[in-house]
Design brief:
This protein starts with a helix and ends with a strand. The chain has 3 domains: 129 residues, PAS domain (Beta-Lactamase); 85 residues, Signal transduction histidine kinase, dimerisation/phosphotransfer (DHp) domain (Helix Hairpins); 147 residues, 2-Layer Sandwich (Heat Shock Protein 90). It contains 8 helices and 12 strands. Helix 4 packs parallel to helix 8, helix 5 packs parallel to helix 6 and helix 6 packs antiparallel against helix 8. The radius of gyration is 48 Å and the shape is rod-shaped. Helix content is 55%, strand content 18%.
Length: 430
């Protein structure tokens, strides 16, 4: 836009400078025509000679010829061969008498009533030089304005990028559970400041609601654990005191369900604390291969008794910042899920790798797997798919895995193992 404005100014200034010379030539032509009408060719010849003797002749170009083009009076040696006598303004390069170099001259040529030819003109080299100066000045102004515009654009871009980055960084931190993070504001009242204030108000409300919900669920789970624990104790005492086989069977079932309920409450509390970000500051550099082998050693006997073979694959020197206990619990949940639901399978693969700076931990089996359209439902809290409803479980195993992944700024992905299920944890550095 700036270039267009400067180009317009350059063209307009050039037209203005040349137009002034054109007007002067037209005025000279009109004066000479008036003199010709009143005094004829002789008066016109005398006037041309007079003008050349005065200061007006310094830039003036005049030529009067007869009908055959032979010069009668003026400061051109001959009539220009390519110049028609049509009365139009033209700029030509001509030699004036006494000049060794051609000069740019604006001329108007016409034929008089007696057949004579009259040329009036003016040397416009100074005007063209002035126009070039205007052009150079405007070109410099354009370059300067372009540099300034680019500089301002870069500066504004960096300011906008920094402000947007602050908002994006806050959003990412909130997404992984840091609900106390807020968008930085400077009180300037500009659009980004108002946006940051609005986002902070929204985050305050979300933080308050989540805190209330967490307090309620934590309190409920905590309060329920005590009576459930007492219930288990009472059932165990009753089992020790009774000799009735029917009553013992019933007490055994009650004991099993109470333990399941206590496990669910414990897991729900752990998920709630993990999603709240507790433990995020306890990540330590961990040898991932050693972690996988420790989990495999603990669950090795159970896996063998269930008819499965466990394979572990991880680089020896793979170090990554992890909350060791929570990641171990997540892998334990995934192995237990594979043992419970991978009917018809015979192997469980546990592997880890580093890709693009992210840690990828995979637990895979070759059982029946989960249909792709059910992957989302399997990750829901207390979500249990129809084939699994007749088996023991709370539907919280994958929920805990997902919460631990989010604590590590990561995600959980379910995929087909062809056959079987692949659960992939993608964990990122803080």
């Amino acid at each position: 836009m700036t270039g267009g404005v400067l180009l317009f100014v350059q063209q307009a200034s050039q037209r203005t400078v040349v137009a002034a010379d054109q007007q002067a030539v037209e005025d000279a032509r009109d004066d000479l025509l008036a003199l010709y009408r009143s005094g004829g060719k002789a008066a016109l010849r005398t006037e041309i000679a007079r003008r050349f003797r005065s200061i007006e002749g310094e830039r003036a170009v005049l030529l009067l010829t007869d009908a055959q083009g032979r010069p009668i009076s003026g400061n051109l040696g001959a009539w220009p061969a390519s110049l028609p006598a049509d009365g139009h303004w033209r700029i030509m390069s001509l030699y004036r008498i006494g000049r060794e170099e051609p000069e740019p001259i604006g001329v108007i040529a016409l034929r008089l009533k007696g057949g004579e030819l009259l040329l009036t003109g003016m040397v416009i080299s100074n005007s063209l030089q002035l126009a070039r100066i205007y052009e150079e000045a405007l070109s410099v102004a354009f370059v300067i304005s372009l540099v300034l515009a680019l500089g301002i654009a870069i500066m504004l871009g960096r300011i906008l990028a920094r402000q947007v980055s602050d908002i994006a960084r806050t959003a990412n931190e909130v997404a992984v559970g840091a609900l106390d993070r807020r968008v930085p504001t400077d009180g300037s009242g500009d659009a980004f400041d108002r946006l940051g204030t609005s986002i902070n108000a929204m985050l305050e409300r979300i933080d308050a609601l989540v805190t209330q919900l967490r307090m309620m669920t934590d309190g409920l789970a905590h309060d329920l654990k005590s009576p459930v624990t007492r219930l288990i104790s009472v059932v165990e005492q009753a089992s020790a005191q009774t000799r009735d086989d029917t009553a013992l069977d019933a007490l055994e079932k009650v004991h099993h369900e109470a333990q399941t309920l206590r496990s669910m409450l414990t897991t729900a509390l752990l998920i709630s604390r993990t999603e709240a970000g507790f433990g995020g500051d306890q990540r330590r550099d961990t040898n991932v291969g050693d972690l996988l082998r420790d989990v495999g050693e603990v669950y090795g006997p159970l896996i063998e008794d269930s008819g499965f073979a466990l394979s572990i694959s991880a680089p020896e020197s793979l170090i990554f910042p992890l909350h060791r206990e929570l990641v171990s619990q997540s892998l334990a949940n995934l192995i237990e899920n594979a043992l419970y639901y991978a009917e018809g399978g015979d192997s469980i693969d546990l592997s880890a790798a580093l890709e693009d700076g992210h840690l990828l931990i995979c637990v895979a089996d070759n059982g029946p797997g989960i249909a792709e359209e059910s992957h989302h439902a399997a990750l829901k809290r207390f979500g249990r798919l129809d084939p699994a409803r007749g088996k023991p479980g709370s539907g919280l195993g994958l929920s805990l895995v997902e919460a631990v992944a989010r604590l590590h700024h990561g995600t959980v992905t379910l995929a087909d193992n062809g056959p079987g299920l692949r659960v992939l944890l993608i964990l990122r550095r803080p």
